[in-house]
Amino acid sequence: MSFNLEIISPQQIIFNDDIELCILPGIEGDFGILKNHMPFLTTLRIGIAYIYKNKKIIETFLVNGGIVEVSNNKCTLLSEDIVKTSEHKDQKTDDKIEIEKLRVSKKFYYS
Q1: Interior angle at CA 14, CA 3 and CA 51, nearest 5
Q2: How many domains does the chain have?
Q3: How far, in Å, CA of 29 to CA of 6, rounded?
Q4: Quick count: other Cβ atoms within 10 Å of Cβ 64?
Q5: Within a domain: 111
Q6: What whole-number distance in Å separates Cα of residue 59 and Cα of residue 109?
Q7: Residue 110 falls within a domain, yes or no?
Q8: Residue 43 has what pLDDT?
Q9: Which one of 14, 49, 83, 103 counts the least CB within 10 Å of its CB?
Q10: What pLDDT score was predicted for residue 92?
Q11: What count of other Cβ atoms lies within 10 Å of the Cβ of residue 90?
C-alpha cells in the first residue's frame, strides 16, 4: 500500500518515489500521510520529515517551512529550504536559523 511523494525545491526535485508513510512537521504539530489520505493542504514549520518504505525509515529531510498538498494518492511538498539530514549534521554556522536546524536535526522522534 503506497502513494507517491514528491519533494520539490526551487532548484530541483529532491525526492520522487512511492512510499508507505511520511511524517511531516506541520505548524500545529507533526502529522502522518498514508495511502488514500483525504485531500489536504497545510504549511510546515522547521522540523524533520520522515520517509518510510517497507516499514523502515529510508530517508529524513530537514525542512525549514513549506507547503504540503495531498490529493489522489500523491503528496507534494514544496519548500525553499530542505536538505537531507545526513548532509546537514556536520555543518557549522553562527546563523540562528542554521543553529536551530542543527538542534532539530539531532532529534529523531519516529525511528
Answers
A1: 45
A2: 1
A3: 21
A4: 19
A5: no
A6: 14
A7: no
A8: 97
A9: 103
A10: 47
A11: 7
pLDDT lower than 50: segments of the chain: 91-94
Domain contains 79? yes
CATH number, domain with residue 23: 2.60.15.10
Q: What is the pTM of this model?
A: 0.79
Q: What is the pLDDT of residues 54-82, one digit of tens each?
A: 999 999 999 989 999 999 999 999 999 88
Q: Provide the pLDDT for residue 107.
A: 62
Which cell goes with 79?
A: 519548500
Which among 91, 32, 24 has a CA at the least distance from the CA of 61? 24
Sign, Cα dihedral of 6, 31, 22, 84: positive
Query: In terms of residue numbers, what domain contains 21?
Result: 3-105
C-alpha cell belonging to residue 68 = 504540503
User: Residue 5 phi/psi, 5° resolution?
Assistant: -115, 130
What pLDDT score was predicted for residue 99? Answer: 64
3-class state of residue 53 by DSSP: strand
